[in-house]
Design goal:
Layout (H helix, E strand, L loop, with lengths): L1 E7 L3 E8 L4 E9 L6 E7 L2 E7 L4 H12 L13 E6 L10 E3 L2 H9 L8 H14 L5 E4 L20 H6 L8 H15 L5 E6 L5 E6 L2 E5 L23 H8 L3 H10 L2 H6 L5 H9 L3 H25 L4 E5 H6 L1 H8 L11 H6 L4 E2 L8 E4 L4 H22 L2
Parallel strand pairs: 1-6, 6-8, 9-12, 12-14
Antiparallel strand pairs: 1-2, 2-3, 3-4, 4-5, 7-8, 9-10, 10-11, 13-14
Helix pairs in contact: 5-14, 9-10, 10-12
Length: 403
């Protein structure tokens, strides 16, 4: 079975093609600047790589171009697009719907209800899903929601101190995100340490970041809340923020509520503090040359992470493993060192030489400490592919039982 996993942005489409169930990656690629006359298309199939600049009108056209590349007579890995059993989406927020869902009008309606709390994610996914459902009706579309992994979180760890009926009426509660990444870390760490009964703190650090406390493979607490704008500060999103300051900002600036929310969602976070970039690499370079606001942005990011790390250590009663993943978690030795600084009495310490010198999947903790510290590259797309296969198998079995 071949499953195409799609990761969408408002003007981008990235994909990986897997052969399942043996989880072999057959191809990967993507298209940027969709809707432009100069859309950039990239594909990697085995040793073959190519990049093309051409006009790609919309996400449906992007998928058709992807399928054309995959079925190319000379370099493709498919004989026909019919070999693609389904397209799986790493969907973000379904509100009242979670888990793995065959995309239909009800799923799209549920996602639309959460547009205001996931403005950077849901609208482009919904638009692309509608296009693909209309133009590629022969291929099943399946959404694997990021909130799914966090459904095991207890009521007390997902409830806000708001009027009680708001949760039921308006879906205002802590949902949590990056579920595919944290699920992968839970599975992979259990394999690495040879145990299923682990207390793991997964730190997914990247352009969008979150921490999750995991016990016995299940999420028990997470840093993001009702929206992906919350938790630790992001590259350009505010993170946790006191809502009672909003009227003050509106009064002083003359901005509307919508304009203020747009600013803290797009001009906040690391970008807002530094004033020039939300990219950790840029901030580290500037800070090394004495830029104080870049240093402050980095220090605030680390402080935010440590605050949530402390909560999760208390929630789990300690940790057997602390795992860094995501673009920052995998590549920034200084962020990892800052997060783990001074935690020896809590059972966490890193080996400076291992932290600085190694790349890829590796242990960076000091030997003899209660908590293993690892860097593990995540694979969200593989998790989505596995979820899609399980969903299709379940749907097939149910259909046979109903005959």
């Amino acid at each position: 079975m071949k499953v195409l996993v799609a990761n969408l942005g408002s003007t981008s489409f990235k994909y990986r093609l897997y052969r399942m169930p043996d989880a072999v990656e057959l191809a990967r690629g993507g298209i940027e600047r969709i809707g432009s006359e100069e859309s950039r298309s990239m594909v990697c199939i085995g040793d073959y790589q190519d990049e093309v600049v051409s006009a790609v009108a919309d996400h449906a056209a992007a998928v058709r171009q992807c399928l054309a590349q995959l079925t190319d007579a000379e370099h493709g890995c498919l004989e026909s697009a019919d070999e693609v059993a389904a397209i799986g989406f790493k969907a973000v927020h379904g509100g009242r719907l979670s888990g793995v869902q065959r995309i239909d009008d009800e799923v799209l309606a549920a996602m639309s209800e959460m547009n205001q709390v996931a403005p950077a994610h849901n609208p482009p996914y919904i638009a692309a899903m509608r296009q693909l459902a209309k133009k590629l009706p022969e291929i099943p579309l399946v959404a694997a929601f990021e909130t799914d992994f966090h459904q095991s979180i207890s009521r007390e760890n997902r409830t806000y101190g708001i009027p009680f009926d708001w949760e039921e009426k308006f879906n205002v509660r802590r949902f949590g995100f990056h579920g595919a990444s944290h699920r992968y870390i839970a599975k992979r760490t259990a394999q690495l340490l040879g145990r299923d009964d682990l207390r793991i703190i997964s730190l997914h650090l990247g352009g969008s970041s979150s921490l999750t406390a995991i016990r016995d493979g299940q999420s028990v607490a997470t840093s993001m809340g009702a929206s992906p704008q919350s938790g630790i500060l992001q590259n350009n999103r505010v993170g946790d923020f006191d809502p009672f300051t909003l009227p003050l900002i509106m009064e002083q600036t003359g901005l509307s509520l919508e304009e203020v929310l747009q600013k803290i969602a797009c001009e906040g976070g690391l970008l807002g503090i530094s004033g020039h970039s939300g990219d950790i690499r840029d901030l580290e370079e500037k800070a090394s040359k004495g830029d104080q606001r870049s240093r402050l942005a980095l220090d605030t990011f680390i402080a935010n992470i440590r605050q949530y790390l402390g909560w999760m250590l208390v929630e789990l009663g300690g940790a057997d493993a602390v795992v860094f993943t995501g673009g920052i978690g995998e590549n920034s030795a200084s962020i990892r060192a800052g997060v783990c600084r001074g935690l020896v009495e809590l059972g966490i310490a890193i080996d400076d030489e291992k932290n600085e010198s190694l790349r890829g999947e590796r242990a960076i903790g000091k030997s003899g400490m209660p908590a293993a510290v690892w860097v593990v590259p995540t694979n969200e797309e593989l998790i989505v592919a596995q979820q899609v296969v399980a969903h299709l198998a379940g749907a097939t079995q149910q259909g046979e039982e109903n005959r």
